[in-house]
Structure formats: structure tokens, C-alpha cells
Amino acid sequence: MRVLDNNDREFIRIHRELQACSGCFCFGSCQSCMQQATVASPPGQIIGTVEQQGSASSMKYTLKDVNNQSILTIIGPCCIVNGPYSCGCQNTYTIRKTLFERLNS
């Protein structure tokens, strides 16, 4: 994904390799199914990653800096499908500094 400024200049690039079973949290902690994206700004200079964490009950992601240190954790719903086949749950996400410290937003 390329993020452009108002002058159509790219200032962030997010790259993710395709995983065979992507998007299915039901594989829980299957390491080969975990998603990881690199974030570069300016393009070509990696500033961090977004990594999916293993969970059979919800979507969890960790934002890490270039030194592989965790910065934030994002915890999402167990149901991310909308439409007539959805489970009816709200798609809300919680951002935490640590696993137990919720950010005010």
C-alpha cells in the first residue's frame, strides 16, 4: 500500500507478503498463517512492522519499531465479517500500550 500526501508524493509504504491462510483467525497460533507487514517512511527505509499475534478468540496485532520493540497492541473483534452472514457483533478495536494498559481515545 502506498500512502500519498496532497501533492501525490509517496511518504509511507506498507508491504505485506501473501500468506496461504490469511484472514482466518480460526487457525489460532499457526505460525505460517500469521500476517506481518513492514512500514517504510520514506519509502525504502523501514521504520517498523505490524505483526499478527496468535489467538483463537480475537484479532491481535503488535506494532513494533525498527529495533523490534513493541510499541502498541491492537485487539480486534472475533468477528470481522459484515453483511447478511455476519455474527452481528460490533467491529471495535482497542489500542493498548501494553497488554493491560488501555489508551484513552
TrEMBL record:
<comment type="similarity">
    <text>Belongs to the phospholipid scramblase family.</text>
</comment>
<dbReference type="InterPro" id="IPR005552">
    <property type="entry name" value="Scramblase"/>
</dbReference>
<keyword id="KW-0564">Palmitate</keyword>
<keyword id="KW-0449">Lipoprotein</keyword>
<dbReference type="GO" id="GO:0017128">
    <property type="term" value="F:phospholipid scramblase activity"/>
</dbReference>
<keyword id="KW-0106">Calcium</keyword>
<dbReference type="Pfam" id="PF03803">
    <property type="entry name" value="Scramblase"/>
</dbReference>
<dbReference type="GO" id="GO:0005886">
    <property type="term" value="C:plasma membrane"/>
</dbReference>
<protein>
    <recommendedName>
        <fullName>Phospholipid scramblase</fullName>
    </recommendedName>
</protein>
<comment type="function">
    <text>May mediate accelerated ATP-independent bidirectional transbilayer migration of phospholipids upon binding calcium ions that results in a loss of phospholipid asymmetry in the plasma membrane.</text>
</comment>
